[in-house]
Write a structure and sequence with these properties.
single chain, MetI-like fold, 2 domains, 15 helices, about 65% helix, disordered N terminus
């Protein structure tokens, strides 16, 4: 760095003398003017002192250069960067992984297989003991083992119901949103018919039909929940497809001769799945609650099936004297549903840049 300041003393003296208008600039007058002006200039130079950077210190190439070594982050990589910093995502994933492990490997967690264990009436509504820290049911069965065993049925219904509505609702919504016109109108009216039926009330009615009442089970309940739950996913997918179907990359693919279904499968659906994944995560918890509600009412899973809804239904009669058979499966149900709702909220914030807090 160097300081920029005037050095031509003689020009200052000449200008001062010329300003008088009546005298010629002599050497004596020049010396006198220089001495006076240097005193004034020294006082003002302190306030007007400027510094100019050397060219070698700030090269233009270094200033205007941009780092191009790193590839731009995709939507999913950017979402993962946001998710791993969120405590809600970490907590929800820990609970979900634990629930999945209990559902598929219950023998690791239970103390005895409730399907083979003997339920002794002498333990009816018994309190917690050393090997049975959750107590006993009215039939003398271990509450802890039944809660562990009931995880599989409840989680299976929720998981496969969600997969079903995503596949069916996603296909219908994508076709309606991409083609539009009369196809969109017909599929939209069809979705309105099913959307008008509340999930629980519609399942209550459909489960009374002989074909379903005589074949009650996990897969029957999954089919009914998929039948009544797909319109919501279809609406979300349709809106996402309508938003991206006129994007530049879709127009380029269409100009290159890609077929409509090829564009739909390769370009539109992958870029429209973000809101569907969010609503599917939240819906999974909704379907688990629906299974427990229907089983509690006696029209969901058969009584011999171990599920959280059946356990709550069995323990409601003795709730005042022994609330533990209702409390523990209810707690497991609440934590599982809460974990999926928390995961859905975290995914929504990560996949939707507009909703991120700055």
């Amino acid at each position: 760095m160097h300081k920029f300041e005037p050095t031509d003393s003689e020009s200052v003296a000449t200008d001062t003398a010329a300003a008088s208008g009546r005298h010629r600039a002599t050497p004596e007058m020049a010396e006198h003017a220089v001495a006076g002006n240097q005193k004034d200039f020294g006082a003002s130079a302190i306030a007007t002192e400027r510094f100019v950077a050397d060219i070698d210190e700030t090269p233009v190439v270094a200033t205007d250069s941009a780092t191009t070594d790193e590839a731009p982050l995709s939507l999913w990589r950017d979402a993962w960067r946001q998710l791993r910093k969120k405590p809600t995502f970490i907590v929800s994933m820990v609970l979900i992984v634990l629930a999945v492990l209990i559902a598929f490997f219950p023998q690791i967690f239970w103390t005895e297989n409730p399907a083979n264990a003997q339920c002794l009436l002498e333990h009816s509504n018994g309190k917690a003991t050393g090997g049975h820290f959750m107590g006993f049911t009215a039939q003398g069965c271990d509450v802890y083992s039944r809660v562990i065993a009931g995880t599989r049925a409840s989680l299976t219904v929720g998981l496969f119901s969600t997969l079903g509505v995503v596949v069916i609702g996603g296909i219908i919504g994508a076709i309606a949103g991409y083609f539009g016109g009369w196809v969109d109108a017909v599929l939209a009216r069809l979705g309105d018919i099913f959307f008008a039926l509340p999930l629980i009330l519609g399942a209550l009615v459909v489960m009374q039909l002989p074909v379903f009442r005589e074949h009650r089970g996990v897969w029957t309940l999954v089919a009914i929940l998929v039948l009544l739950g797909w319109p919501q996913v279809a609406r979300i997918m349709r809106g996402a497809v309508v938003e991206v179907r006129n994007a530049d990359y879709v127009t380029s693919a269409r100009s290159l001769g890609v077929s409509p279904f090829g564009i739909l499968l390769k370009h539109i659906i992958p870029n429209a799945m973000a809101p569907v994944i969010v609503i599917a995560t939240i819906s999974l918890g909704t379907f688990i609650v629906a299974e427990s509600t229907l089983s509690y009412l006696g029209i969901g899973l058969p009584p011999e099936s171990m599920s959280w809804g059946n356990d709550i239904s069995d323990g409601k009669d003795a709730f005042r004297s022994n609330p533990m058979p209702v409390f523990w499966p209810g707690l497991a149900l609440s934590l599982t549903v809460l974990s999926f709702i928390m995961l859905g909220d975290a995914l929504r914030d990560a996949l939707d840049p507009k909703s991120r807090k700055k």
